[in-house]
Structure formats: C-alpha cells, structure tokens
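Two quick folds needed for the group meeting slides. Do the first one here.
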Amino acid sequence: MNSEKFEGVIFDVDGVLEFQGQVYAEAVELINSLREKGIIIRILTNSTLKSRKQCANQLKEKGFHIHQTEVITASYATAQYLRSLQPQSCWIMLKGKGLEEFKDFNQDLEKPEYLVLGDMREEFNFHNMNKALQLLKKGAKLIVMITEMVDNSLGQLELTVGAYGKMLEEAAQVKATYIGKPNRYIFQITLETMHVDKSKVLMVGDKIATDILGAKNAGLKSALVKAGEFKETDLNSNIKPDYIFDSIKDVARLFP
C-alpha cells in the first residue's frame, strides 16, 4: 500500500488517539509499535488551555508512553513564536496550565506590545474584550493561538478562540497572526523538533479543515482517520488527504 518510507509521524490528539476522554482501541499499541520501528513520534494539539507537560501527563495516565518533549500544544507553539519576536511586553489572554508556557514573558495589561489570545473561558467577557479592542486601537499587535471558531471535543458545541480573534480583528481593523493548525507556524515549530526531512513525515488527523489542510500547507503527507469529529461529507472537500483509514489501527498498514 505504501511506496514511501516514513520516519516520523505527527498525531492529532482529540479524535485520533482519543475522543471526549475515551482512548481509541489500539491507539496505544500503534504508538508502541511505531517506537519499536524507530519512528519519531510527535503529538500535535490545538489545545491552548494545556501545557505540553500537562498534555503528556494526561496521555501517560491513559496508557500512552509519551514524553513532554514530544508534545506540541498551541500554547507552547505560540510561546515559541512569540519568543522569536523578542517582545518588550505582552498580555497573555489565557487560562489554565497553558499559561506556564509564557512564564518568561513580561506581562503588561496596560501597554502591551503584543496581545496574545488563547482560551479565556468565562473571562471572555465585556470588560476584557473591550479592553483588548482599545489596546489594539492604540497599536498593540494581535496574535491568536488557534483559528478554529467552534469546538465540540468536550461533547457540546462551544465558541472557541478563533471566534473571539476574528471579532477583535474586525472590530479593531487589524490583521492577526494565527499560530495553531492549519497555520504553518505550529507545523514549522513541530518539524524543527523532529530533525527529519518533511518528505518523510506523516500527519494523522480526523479534521480536514485543520489537520489535513495544515499538513498540505506545511508540505506534509497526510492520513485522515474516520473518527472523532469526522463526517462523511468532509470527503467532498477540495482538500484531499493522501490516505484515508476507517480507524487509527489501520495507520499501521503504512509501517509494515
């Protein structure tokens, strides 16, 4: 089935390794099998609330042998991107353990050079969003951790980071920089940690609009798993994966 020899695999988490807290059958076995074959593993998630340490620990608790250095979250990738800019100050609009990734930055809620938007949960309120608007109009630059506007990985539909990012962009008439899937930044940061030619790296995901499109943007081959948030109508998209599998265990067919 596979004429290519992949040396690295990037896995999405929600919808591929697990969904709504339940681990998919044989996902752990697949990771272990790939390790035995010497395949480099990376875990790539658009979660902003989680730090890479927290994400790795949660996967370990579910039976996965995953190291912190193998995990790239949207919060970690954003911190890495922000570090490359060497900002004088920023306002990290984020809740949860993901904030740990930004502990080295100078926080300034009054005159930040960068406004960095992640998941604030209940703090997406009038006061904070109005303050963000005013800061952007005064010249602060906007970085948004993910593009996605809605999410149902927790079992019910929710507004998420990208929706608030788009609102601020339009209200302030500014252009934001987006980091997470399907944007190239998070894939560049992931690939830099792998030390493998990208032609030898496979992205495995359940969502055309983030995982598969992101892989295409980054020049990677991709495999779509019919799990998680996948819908049959997704196959009507102009964005085509290189491989389509019914379940995560079938990915093993690419690694005989």
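Then this one, please, same format:
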Amino acid sequence: MSAAAQSWWSQAAAAALDLVVPQQCAGCGAPGLAWCPQCVHACAGRSLRVPAPFPCRAACEHDGPAGRAVVAFKDDGVRRLGQPLGSLLAHAAADALADAGAPRGMPVWVVPVPSRRSAVRSRGADHTAVLAGLAARALRREGVPANRCVGLQHVRASRDQVGLTREQRVANVAGSLRGLALPPGVIVVVDDVTTTGATVAEAVRALAATGRAVSCAAAVTWSPGPRHRASETRSD
C-alpha cells in the first residue's frame, strides 16, 4: 500500500473512531473534538521569538492548550492531534525562515531533533519526526518547497531534561548529536518543545561540524523556565 493510501486510511479510521468514542479537546477538555476551535484560535497569530543566538520561533507558550496537546499526542497516544500540532510547527518554522531572511524558492530541509531512543521505544514512534513531516507538508501547501530530512543522530545517551537547570541541560546534551550529510538548501531544525534552547543549540553545533549552517529553528511550544514531569514530556 502506498504512503498516500496509508495516510488516507489512517485519517478515515481516526474519523470513524471519533464517531464511536467520546472525544474531548486535549487543550481545554471541551467535548466533541480532539482540538477544538477555541484552542485553534488561542494558538493563532504571530509566533513567539525564542531567545537564542540564531532565529528561533515557537508557535505558542507551553503553559496553555498547545502544551497540553503536545503531552497528549506524545504520552497519551492521541494521534489525531498530529495534524494541528504539525500545522502549528509549520507556522513557527515559516516565521523563523522569514526572520532568517531565507531566500524564496530554495529547498527547505526540515530536520527534527531526534527523540531519545528510550522515548521512542516506550512511545512506539519518534513523535518529533512525525510532527516534522506534517509541518513540511503544511509548508508545501503554502508554497514552500519543504521536506523532512533526517540530519541528526544520537552518538551518546542523554538523560531526560525535565527538571534540570539551564546549566545542567547544556551539559547533559553537549556532544550528544552528530550531523549527517544534507542536500543543498535551507536548514530549519525543529523540536516539539523548547525551554532553554540547549537541545536545539546542540543540533545546530552538530550540523555546523559537517560544514552546513542552520538558518533557523522552530518548535511547537516554548516555556521560559524549567518544567516538571506533571506538565511536560521531554524538553530541551
């Protein structure tokens, strides 16, 4: 079965499930939809500038409906949230590309920060990679020649970042990633959540070591301070 056919059947199955299983919005708990119009509106508008030494944007703050949706998507297996979260990531990426002055018409490589291997095993998928693919598709619908591209891999294990200070996060991820060869074009590194920017900065360093400069970075949500297990999955 082709990828397009699989995607169609996945969407059809999710829609059918919505008809028989009561749903509630992951953002606010309202019944009826996994992501309600009110939460869509709450996350609409200009994305947030994330403090970083390179152009970096997040669609909205983590302490809100989008942050709860990210947790539901990754930890609770609410797959129907993939499309709206991917669209939010695309919105942030588009703004980051504009900040970076990326030339129009050039190929854009959406490079996800790889999830830790233990997280992939426990969740059954690399959800950041899934969101990167959905974001690339959303960007293409807006005329941006974007594609997801595997450009990073882990070379050593790092611990979960939740609850760590900024200094501890930087030390935790330092040297943990290796950059891979990428085709010519504009590179935007993406993650689901960013806090201190330590993980994204490590991704930028790893790609720079291959001789490729990262134009910008983007995330679905941003939190200005460390978060704890009760409100977050994996962060940087």
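Slide caption for protein two: The beta strands are 48-49, 56-61, 108-112, 146-148, 152-154, 177-179, 186-194, 216-222.
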